## 1
Amino acid sequence: MSEPPVWSPLKVGLVSKFIMSRVKSQDRAALEAIFNPTNLHSYVLELKKAQSIMEKYCPIEITTPFKGNCLEVTSCNKYFVFGSIEGRLAVVERETKEILHDINLEGGSIYTLALFNEDHSLLAAGKDGIIRNFNFRTFKLEKSFQGHEKEVNEIIVSQDGEKIYSVSDDCTVRMWDINENEGQILFYHDKAVLCIDKSDDGTHLVTGGADKKVKVFNLDNEVVQSSLTELSSSVWSVRFSQDSEYIAAGDSNGVIKLWKFETLELFKTLNGHTKRITHLTFNTANTTLISSSNDTTLRIWDIIEDKHEIILSGHTDWVKNFRLSQDEKYIYSIAENYKIMTWNFPRFDKSCCRKANKSPIQLICSSSNNQYLYTSDINEIAVWTLHDKEYYKTLKTQWKLSAMCTNSDGLGIIAAYENNEIHFWSVEDSESQFKKKHSSHIRCIVCSPDGRYVVVGDVNFRVTVYNKRNFRVSNVFRRHNAVINSIIFGKPINGENDKLYSGGDDKVIFIYSINENKSLRLPGSHQEPISQMLVSRNNELLISGDTSGVIKIWHLLQQICMKTLNTHTAKITGIYFTENSKYFWLSSLDASVSLWNSASFTQVTNLHTKYPVSALWCTKNEADIVLGENDEVHFLENPLRTSQFFIYGPGRDYYSFMKYIMRICENGEEPHDPEMDKWMITPYEINALHFYAYLNLPGHLKAALNSDSPFYVSKSGYSPIQIALHRNFRDCINVIIKSICTKVEENPYTVNFLEESIVKLNLLGLRDLDDFYESILFRTKDRLLPKFCDENVTLPIMHFSRNLGPHQKDFFTHGQISNFGTPLAFWQSALRLDVVMGSRDSLIFLESIKDCPNTNIFRTSFVRELILYKWKYLKWVLLPQAITYFVYMICLSVYSIVFSSDCEPLLLAIFLINTILACYEVFQMILTRSSYLSDPWNYIDFTRMSLCFVYIGMHWLGFNKKYAEKVLVGLIFVTMVRGISYFRLFDKTRYMINLLRETIKDMKSFLILLSYSTYSFALIYFIMVNNVLKYSAKASTETSTETTVDQQKPFSEYIAISYLLSLGSFDTDNYGAFEWIIFFFASVINPLIMLNLLIAIMGDTYSRVAEEQEIADMQELTEMVIEGEYLLFCKRNKGTRTYMQICKEEELSAQDVTIEQKLDKLKLRVKEVETSFIQRSQEMRMEVQDTIAGINSKVDEMTGLIEQISLTQD
């Protein structure tokens, strides 16, 4: 098929319009270079790939000067031909987006176009009822077909190009011969005929009209073969599928119906559009139907697998027509918003819907071997095979079903019926096995994973625990005062299930110990009846949901509500924790499923469903999320397990999100849209916040965090802050840090995202880093912690735990707790750190805070408590070295003073001690490696031990004693200097050492000036005194001249005289007037000005050191803690991350010192004690009631057995 010629831009009618195209994607070679994983970090690779794919799937827009009404595409896919509401006919080149031809038909709106005869001919018709035939190459009008009395709505052409079929508001369907002017009326509708199509074999026509009828016309017999009346409003589009397998029709209400053509049996009804259907098209495989509508969207329907449709959104006005490219890779659409859009044909994910239940689904569960899925309505249980997601069979029940759960043996399910009976079902059984008749109506049932128990909750407010083997009652708990709706087991501990949890209409949660026959009520409650509960895989968290859609997250060890989530608006129907515990799923009757991050408890994304979700389940390998929607089972491909690119979010408006991200990437000034933050891109598990951090958009990040947008780690392990850190975007980092600081106490789990980044944050030394460290150590609000302890208990007590909040047993024994004594305050950190002394991560963290440019972090409570805790133990590691060095100094002093450097045994002892210290230095050098050279004290140590070995060697080898003594002097000097560093071990002298070090640093400039003035006056004295001696020699004899020459001193002695003058030592004998003048200036400048300058410098140094004493003290401690931890090399790989928890004596502020305030505090404490007593009394009363309930249950069983025996005898 030949291509039409390329026209030059013509100025016909409206001026031709050039449309600016957006920046195109890079060529293949450039993309391959970008995506080379050896060149980039994984997050860059992921973001670039996601951006490239979104760019590919984002529609390409062509802006037209007219409101589009109909569209045709040339066979080469290079040119668009469209008609407009304004009555203009135009041609646009697809690649350049340039209007090549534009004419005004002057007949009103153009409703329909048809290209035929190998793109040589073009038909156009519309409001005036005339069908015009143009030569497409020249746009010359060749023929007009007149006959319709009203507007023509659609025309089609036969395969051979000889026949034209048209429909009109005049209620007629006509056929025209291309070579004749007159048309033939084939048949009528009762009202306007709006659409038409023909079968591939050319034997049938299908039409739709305002009379709500779809008519099938046989062209061979020229009779109306059938009339379909299933649609309830005007039919605006009809279509034959390939090979005439199906007929599709869409009406003005947005409803699409499909019939099988052979039998004309209604095959499927598709609901989704909200306004008139404007066009329909099947793909060649007859698996997909594409529709457009006045609701501004196109939708793609899978008519085989019953998948949820894909929505193409981008037009902002009625979509009037579209075409599918011949290779089915693109969709071209036109709308009244002056746009022609080119869409990449999207693909469906692996999700699908199935239907087997006859009533709304209530419960879902699966076999433990992941072979079968069970969905139950009120009357029956449908069984599905999971490997192919196909219906397998139905388990018929004699009574209505009230509860169901998976059997722990993996072979079937356990069902409870309205007649109070408990039955076991196996897939292969035709009938269930009766096990037990409960004494009242069962609302929920659960089987323990260890296979020991079956537990039921009933309308009589009881939790009954049956032994699964013989169904004898093991425990009965009667703690609720309303119907029980949910019962769950905790995860097995050592292979056994002991903990049980229940919630019901009384809005409270109880915890039971089956082995100990005890129960406990969680403090706090819901505002509405509890509908669902689930325990995390580590038994630390409990998630509960109620009938109003509120979710509460409980910490089971602390027994407190950590977080309340108010995202859903209707009953919570399902909760699921992922296997890696990184996320959890929630489902609700508000027709949505939400995914949450279990580290920060922030919503990752929200998926809207067509119908309310009545049940949620996840297959064992987590490949699919299974939802019950009315009577359908929706197998949703798990976004967390897919390997394909897909976008999940609230609704199916994927294109709005993609366009938003593309605008963000192209122009960072795009306004922030909080709704776009809730979408997730798979398989990378990234969202808009990752792009904000990558593109350095702190304003967008701030707005996103303020609106509680999802902040989480991608699949490759990168969070937005890690991206910002890697790219060194300080503004983005500061925004994230500030946001976390404000939310720490409300949600301390948000700090978990910084665990991997804290070292980099320390090395950057951001300005708000000290505020962050100050915020992550806060006072706990746990009311269950003790308020007082025995006065003999030593406080503070520090504990490191894997659990976030402090627990009483970690700090005190039962006997140490009292109702009076020392008031207590508990503090907890929100940041997990490896604090195991000597571990690799602990050393890395300590090194990072030591090198942190923001030294104010050493003022924060968190850093101080951590360093002081470590120093409390590590000082005993460094103390032996200090003692050894002290013994070394004593031996050296005694050797030098008492024995006058002549005592061989003592010298041998010095040699041995020095050898020990040298071995320690070598050991330290091996452990610390390159960081050993960063400590100046190590250079002094190396010099000291070298001088010691040199002196001992000289002494033992008989070297000149004079030189040996000089080496000894140097050794003693270096030894004493190194000894100063050990005063850092003690709190009272550590400050003085720091003052001495800072003073020496600040004296550098002073020493330069002092050296300069000393040298200057030495030079003056040298010249002045030598001249005096020389001139004196001229008046003397030759002998006296020789004596005068001998009296001249070297220049070095004058330097000493000038230096001594600075210290107040001088000799003014034989000074004349000139010498006194020089002396005056020298004495003023050196002794007076210089020394006063030194005093001023030292005063400033003292003030500064005093002001920064706290920081300097902690820095010294940190350095010594690092030195101590390096020695604990055996613990390098034994680190674990824990939370810091502290119990202190409660500090009373100045406002608490009045008698009235003390009395108020005392009254409050008495009230707390009273409340605690009442609570304990209620718990004991409940335990007694449980015991009585157990006895009553046994009596009920015995009564039932007696009745059964009586019936048997009768």
Note: The first strand starts at residue 60 and ends at 63.
## 2
Amino acid sequence: MQKISVLLFLAWIGFLFYAGIALFTSGFLLTRLELNNHSSCQEPPGPGSLPWGSRGEPGACWMASRFRRLVLVVIDALRFDFAKPKLSQVSGEPPVSLPFLGKLSSFQKILEIQPHHARLYQSKADPPTTTMQRIKALTTGSLPTFVDAGSNFASYAVAEDNLIKQLTNTGRRVVFMGDETWNDLFPGAFSQAFFFSSFDVRDLHTVDNGILEHLHPTMDSGEWDVLIFHFLGVDHCGHKHGPHHPEMAKKLSQMDQVIQGLVERLENDTLLVVTGDHGMTTSGNHGGDSELENSAALFLYSPTALFPSAPPEVSRFLRTYSAVAQDLQVKELHRLQNLFSKASADYQQLLQSPQGAEAALQTVITELQQFLRGVRAMCIESWARFSLVRMAAGAALLAATCFLCLLVSQSAASPGFYFRPLLIPVVWGLTGAMVCAGLLAATGLKLDLVVLGAMAAVGSLLPCLWKAWIGWGSKKPLTALLPMPEPVLLLLLIRFAGFFSDSFVIAEARAAPFLLVSLVLLLVAQLHWEGKLLPPKLLTGPRFGFLTPTGPSRHNGLHALGLGGGLLLCIRVSGLFHRCPEETPACSSSPWLSPLASMVGGRAKNLWYGACVGVLVTLLAVVRLWLRHYGNLKSPEPPVLFVRWGLPLMVLGTAAYWALASGADEAPPRLRALVAGALVMLPRAVAGLAASGLVLLLWRPVTVLVKASTGAPRTRTILTPFSGPPTSQADLDYVVPQIYRHMQEEFRGRLERTKSQGPLTVAAYQLGSVYSAAMVTALTFLAFPLLLLHAERISFVFLLLFLQSFLLLHLLAAGIPITTPGPFTVPWQAVSAWAFMATQTFYSTGHQPVFPAIHWHAAFVGVSEVPGFTWLSALMVGANTFASHLLFAVGCPLLLLWPFLCESQGPRKRRQPPGNEAEARVRPEEEEEPLMEMRLRDAPHHFNAALLQLGLKYLFVLGIQILASALAASILRRHLMVWKVFAPKFIFEAIGFIVSSVGLCLGIALVMRVDGAVSSWFRQLVLSHQRAGEQSSLVYTGAGSSAREAQPHLLPSCSQEPLAPGTSSFYNLKP
């Protein structure tokens, strides 16, 4: 029941955080209102009559058609500088050698030969610069919103008035070829269509080649009025290789040939429009609002001269939207309407009296530009309007939940902690949710799930906070509310305050390692203050610290210093894998973050591939050596057998996948289908093996070796404090009782061996590390599928992750005393260091809390081109982004287990039972082998309380981060960098918290599963002996280099199982 209470309470705490995040998000990230109004020829776009008088012409609506046909070519991610000519070298400056310059040479030739027939513009794309949002913006003329970026994986039909619908309504035949996203946005709108899957960004040619196959036949047939092509090769090349790769030059040259072919086939009444939907960053990604992402090329050409224009339809949209939404500023709306009316009047006057046309036309253009800029600014401000009430309520709910975590974690550290009251907040929360739902249903109001969840959270928080307030009173000082050490509190406050600075958030990749290094140095200093780096006799002066030594150290000073130095070295090396934020142009990202397929040199690629495979083998060897060191690798249980044979298969599958992925483009044409199939099946095989290993671990988590033997146990060796024969009466008094007991046991053994069957001895080995072995095995099974989602050279970071974790755990264990029989506790500095390391690893794996830095290639690992796999792709992108959060959250219980595991560093003196001094003097001092993690089972109540306390502390550290990001986003909501820095940071922190909280519950649940399996194992063993009616002895062991060398231990009282009648418990030196 205690285990269930702990898991339920942690899950409920997570729900409270989720409710606060959802409530804050509902007030911070608002979407705009979409109008279903559609324009018609009967409604003119502006005031007054249409001066051009063309309604009677066939196919004309508001104005005469200057072109009968349109060819629209969308080259995805066509950045403006891709269309620039190759500049000649300027004297005194180094030559510019960018592979994409000058590849679209047809633009420059046309502009030079026919300047009145062509125009090249720089188009500014409004963020978010994702493909689906940009297509909606191009076809509707509206602005995409920030939260629309989340729909890029799942597109929905456009309901607003749009260009495609207007063309089809006027009877135009619209033919489309290319990206299948258009089919999702405009289903059934095309008279003829050739859709190609845009799913795999590693595929540079399928979509483009499919378009080229149908382009010329369709164009020559003449059965079209509007022809739309959407090429994806440039965008996919940017994602896969980046804009500076030679493949980008090849792809742009191919697009140049396409444009030349179109120009040659154009008729005089046809307009050619070539445009990019957005740009790309220097790494080839997009989605944000940087200059390179917003910059796109727009090229217009026609065999006839270009082109007079007419006033836009923006004014009517503004008038309609303001009437429906009623959230535009009235004063600014009137000003813009008056400005548009004046521009329209000036335009009408210009048409009636052409005298001074040039100056008058410039005035009209200026007025219309001011009008359009004003409308854009007002709409952006309106669509970024916030609900301050919901934002404040969400932040308050997050703060209250953090406070609750702090209170309950303090209570769980007390010896008299009770678990039953933990379920009371859950009951109160469910009651509050039902009451709120009933009131909403009775009043007929709309049921808002976000508000309902918030009411449930408030209903569970209020009784707890009120009870804490009443119980606290004035008995304790205010400083007791923050029981963590002052240096740790200072570091947490620095991190909390840093979220309010855009410079800190941008430079967090460097700030996070600094905070982690500071905490590591603090841990080393703490060991010094506690007398664990120098012998106690040297700590005679107050200069060595303010703490007195608490006891003998389990680690010598050089060992602890070596752990700290190794940890600092790992942190420094992992910092070499970094991605520079866009705001620091002087910084250069690590070249090791890119996949091996993007490398040009074959020799260098092979060397890097060999190094990455070596890292895989090293990771496998480290895990197996660790399990062998503690003896768990000798267990015949299925998970251990899987570690022996399944893990090497996972390494082999990962290495084979990397080999094929890095050379897929170089494969012979007849083998490409086979390579493509293997690239899909190998990741699935590795993921399937990992899932099988986890299932086996959950099924049989007790990795112990059991041996049964008959015959009397061998007696212990006589230990003496002197060498040679006894030389004094004291020596005789010491050794004679031992000889007597030795003779007694030997005589008893001879008598028992004369019986037909001796007593049964059952020895269980490796119980002392059973919890940690299961955790390390589970983390290894999780790491390999997550590693597949990253670039090959990120494997070095994963190896450093394991090394850093082991070093930090050993360093923390050196300063955590083992209290028997409890209560057990994990200090705040350990939890904070673990959380800081998760953040540091997030940046070391090449991530940044911005959308352009998302590793989209992870969505296509092991996934075939099946539309139903969209959710799986989004899940894999999330697993790639938050892999460090998941691994450290699942491994968080190791902070509690590792100090007990490190008890095997040396034997301890067995405590003497009470007796007189003479008996104590003649009884030899015996060495007690460490019980290790079995000490936790000596006090199951304190064990469960420690797991609860650990989970709450970790959630508190993560909770203050999401609270800080929410407060920063709300306070700085009008800041210039809110949508570029603070809003993405809040979203990444929120998703990271959700992943971490789920992983934490899974890790604690795994420890409880192992604990329950150990109890079941003891119960079944004892019951089987009871049924057999045998006289038996039951012993267990902690750790050893192998099962043959392991030392068995007495069955602890924590098993809580009665031994069978006649069963004896004893201690053996050798099994």
Note: The chain is about 55% helix and 5% strand.
## 3
Amino acid sequence: GVMRSLWSLGLAFLLALTSRAGGLEIPLEVEQLPTITVQTAGPVIALPFEGSFSMRCEAKGNPQPVYRWTKDGQAIDPLFDLGVKKERNNGSFVIHSGRLAQFQGMYQCYASNNLGTAVSEEIELIVPSTPKFPKEKIAPIVVKEGQPVILECNPPQGIPPRKIYWMTIGLQHIEQDERVSMGHDGNLYISNALEKDSRRDYCCFAAFSVIRTIVRKTAMSVVVKSCRLTVGGQSSSGSYAIPERRPSLLVPSGVQSEVRLLKGEELVLECIAEGFPTPVIEWTKRTEKLPKRANLKNYGKRLTINNIEEEDDGKYTCEARNSVGDTVHYFNVMVEEPPRWQPEPPKGQLAVVGSDVHIKCSASGKPRPVISWRKNGQPLDDGPSSNRQVLDDTIVLHRARPEDSAVYQCEASNRHGTILANANIMIINLPPRMLTKDYQRYSVVQGRDIIMDCKVFIEPPDDTTESVEGERFSVFKNGSLQINQAGKEDSGEYVCFATNSEGKSAITALLDVKDPTQIVEPPQDLHILSGTTAQLTCQAEYDISLRNEFQIVWSKDGEEIPPFTEQSRYFLDDGMLQIINVNQSDKGTYTCTARTNLDQDTASALVTVLDVPDAPEDVELSEQKSWSVRLAWVPGDDHNSSTTEFIVEYEESQWDPGTWRELQRVPGNQVTALLTLHGHLNYQFRVYAVNGIGKGPPSNPTDRYKTLPAAPDKNPENIQIQGHLPHQMDISWEPLLPVEHNGPGLEYKLSYRKLGVEDIWKEHLVKRHAFVIKNTPTFIPYEIKIQSRNSHGWGPEPKVVTGYSGEDLPTASPQDVAVEVLNTTLLRVSWTRVAQATLRGHLGGYNVHWLRKRSLLHSNRIPEERHFLTFPGNRSHAMVPGLRPFSEYRLTVNVFNKRGNGPNSDPVTFQTPEGVPEQVPILTVSNAQRDSITLVWAPPFEANGILTGYLLQYQLINETLAMGDMQEVNVSSADTTHWLLQGLGEMSKYMFYLSACTRVGCGPQRMEEGSTVTEATNSSMSPRPTSCFRTALFNISSYVSDTFVKISWTAGDEQQDSQLYVAYMNNREGNWRISEAVNTSKNFHLIDGLEPGTVYTVCLLAKSRLDNASIFEDVIQTRVKGLASLHLGVSTQGWFIGMMCAVALLTLTVLIACFVTRNKGGKYAVKEKEDLHPEVESQGMNDDTFGDYSEENPLKASQCSLDRGMGGDSDYGDEEECQFNEDGSFIGEYSDHKNRAKGN
């Protein structure tokens, strides 16, 4: 980047630091005195059940400090003297449980380097011993009744807290009250003894919870002698009196006592008095009331004040009083404090050589602390030449020298404790020392703030500072430079300078301003079906230099989604989050975070999971009546798709137990439904909700609800009246469902009568749902009604329906049948309707039958093709499509009803006119020359009339298929199947169009593309070359099945190891397929996977140096599937073999004729060739076997002579002659196929 010093920006800053303000903070890179950073706060109580005890002492300094310890003021080595090992890099050590008693004492840690020594505060390690009561024999205490008793506990010392209990040996607590109570010292005091106080098992228990120990003192015995008079050695039963006695204090002794305690502790004052009657204690404070925080305990004998303050000191008085007198005791309470730093401990200082240094150590406390000083852990030694002066709590170093650098210890003590502080005093002069790494690189996102560090140590500091110019730039006191809203122009190098009287230093900082990270394609809110996969996308832009740090993180409701695992349903990939098999737990806010190590951008989307509604709850029945009930429910969660309706289902236990059926649908905003029920059923109900997602689960079923039996409330429906026979009437109906019976004993009453003739109904009672009425007149109208009933009554009055008795066949045929031929394939037929009386049933319509008798093109008869069309309704004309042109037909019409067809009308014979031919099946481009091309084609399968010739059109095209002017040639001979086009352009591409024509017109065109060649290239440029390639192949033939064709040949000796290729094309699709190379010595090739009954074009191709030339080309048609078995059966018959011999003889005759014709150089017509191949039908084959027969026919491909075929220098005339011969053979083979196709 460009060097950008702060001066060049006008922003120079000179760093000035001062150590006068605040504590001494010297970077560790600078040589400095030790400073203790971690030390154990005492005291440490070593409990035996704890595993170990740490004595911590850690310090910083440069050079690294070394450590030593003292115990009780004596130097020790933890390893040799205590058997423990110090930790590495510090002075700490750990004491493990064991012989702990040897470790008890006061410890102090010293951390030293060559500049000085720092000292820790004293750490007291207390190893408590197990508290025990001494074993002693205690004499019984004998007192008179009314006298005081003191039972001393004298509990052993131990780790607080300690609790004292007085109990019997049986662990029963000694009952305490105003007369008997335990003092704060643990003794049990009895103000005046009574006879009941006599017992031998007063036990004092001391419990130490920290060490989990309870100890008991030897049981003590108290004997209280009664004050009753004795007569004759026995107590008098008369009344007696305990002498009254004025109070005196058992605790405390004397009239006045002094109590000292520390601020914050609990004040405990106690007065326990003896006397009779039992004295009452009253507390007061001289000159003022008792503090509000004062509490009275132990039946008023103990005064406590928590967290005592200085204002709580003063004189407190307790007064014990009874009816005889009183006594008082005065407590002089003094609240004191241990030493505390005031306001804080002395701080380290960094001073310039020759300056005066004041080290002040102020502490407060009560009594006032005594201040003592040490240097590097040793007492001060002030000789005559010393520049040090100690003034009470301050040390003054006059004209400080480097050797005055040391750690000065200040100790403040009173009777409540000692505090110690270390003050590091360094007297040095140094040039500025840069502590921030030079050439530190900083990166910031454009528009954000950046702070570049410039940490420096300077002593002495420089008094001059310069501020930065510019609103976006500012310098902090620690030397850091802040740039607000950084821009791309801020990238570069920055220099920080620092100077003092000892020298100058500088560092360089490098700043790169990066493009911000921005989400450009945030995730979109999503409504997703439960059970499907949800997908959220998040695409972001970021600075390309941060590509290694860039990542996209997804979180759901603030919790980050971990990467994909086998158990996880979350899949994360390149900013996309997929949630597999979504359920309700997946709904929430999904946040995409695109982040680098500099910035991040977030975008959130709300995923709402849609699901079917939950089952309704609390389904209850109300308004229960005989045949109705009201159902109410509480809808379940609709899962973010409003409920559209509720469906009520029922189940009954009598007819179809366990099967639930729909009863009623209720709108989604309604939560009750009044249900109309059938009688004599035991119902239960359930409800489920439907929303836009689907149907939810059903609710729990209700309790059973049983309805009373009743008469049927409906009659049968869908009554069907039919006459299957002429003299009967079949009546059927849809029976009532079992649940609609409403009671037992269901049956039906069938009533009928002739319409308009009879008044009386004939009736039958039936239990089935069908009935046949016999001996009825043919096709007479009847009235019928059906009523249901059960053992509880009749159903409602039934509706009357009308029907007819049985039908019979029509007796008359349509008359006056006439036809009108509209075009070559469409016919209009008309007739006179038959009379209604002759129908003898419901009119169904009319059938038109037609039969193709023959083709007008061929005089021979063809197999009859029968067709018919049905025209429903009462009509007198119809249109008949799908006729064949140039044919003779016969047509009849008949009427029909439900019973069947009536007689046919008289037949009508008609002829269809001549039409245009079908498309020619194949058009090939052959023998391409420099200025000419030969076109070869086959006649159409169906001429639809008398073929008059062909229309050939062609035009010049280029690679983009742009068309030139259309040229036209009329081929007037119907027998012509090839044409030589001359006068074409050299190396030009043409599109050829050919259509066959009759007297009516020309049929659809077939297109083919071809190109002329240059004189130097002896090959065709057409996509499928068909020039005659001279090779010695003989006897080329084919065997055609339904799904395969076998091509066979005989190769000459010269061609035994040559290669050829077999190509074939489905003529409907127009796509060529070419085989792998086939060795000619194999003598055959099988093409399989063909479609039955389909026309294919087959070619043999030879590979030469210049081109793939067509050796042979033919059109074949596969047989119809399923008829091959007929061939196998027929071919074994003698007559069939004889017929095949005749066919072979005819074929040989054709070959001779072809050979003679070729040698003459002439052409023969298609008609002549057809005459040589009479139709199979004329040879006596019946309709059933026609088309099933298949034979291995020789293919009449061009067979060039060996002497000419092997020559390599033949001219174009030879090729043209050879092509001509191939054309003749090709057409002859096609004619044979054509005849077979007609048979099919």
Note: The mean pLDDT is 82.
